[in-house]
Design a protein that fits this description.
By secondary structure, the chain is mainly β. The chain has one helix spanning 22-28, and strands at 41-50, 53-63.
Length: 65
């Protein structure tokens, strides 16, 4: 088992809702409590879709210990 937690702060994809109604969706879900974590490290990553493959690029890393 891997000791990894994934939290998406923002995920952008093709439009699912009309643009004017997305404000209500974001506002309703802006604050959500998931508990407390004590990370050993944090990575800021970017996911790119190329054809039928998704690649991940690490943009920055922070050691928290």
């Amino acid at each position: 088992m891997r000791d990894i937690t994934h939290i998406s702060v923002a995920v952008f994809q093709a439009s699912v809702l009309p643009e004017h109604s997305i404000v209500g969706v974001v506002s309703a879900r802006r604050e959500k409590r998931y508990g407390t974590i004590r990370p050993a490290a944090l990575d800021l990553v970017r996911y790119d879709l190329g054809g039928r493959e998704i690649t991940m690029s690490r943009l920055a890393s922070i050691n928290c210990v």
